[in-house]
Specification:
four-stranded antiparallel sheet; globular; single chain; alpha+beta
Amino acid sequence: MTGPTFVCEFSDGTVTRMTTHCPKGLDLARGIKLSRDAYECRRKKPAPAILGGRFEDAVSGALLQTYDAAAIEAHT
């Protein structure tokens, strides 16, 4: 079974889409960490601020939960 996808928008316009294992509900902290790690690996520089993010169902693409910059900041 595939976990939900965390879609993360960074302040420079970059968007990452990370499949995120969430055994006990949506795990925002894990989604943020995976997205930042992916950004830094791909761009070879520190990740900028995150403007927002959302969890989507990996199969249907249905929106599960959205987060604004304040909610993201609260989990970092």
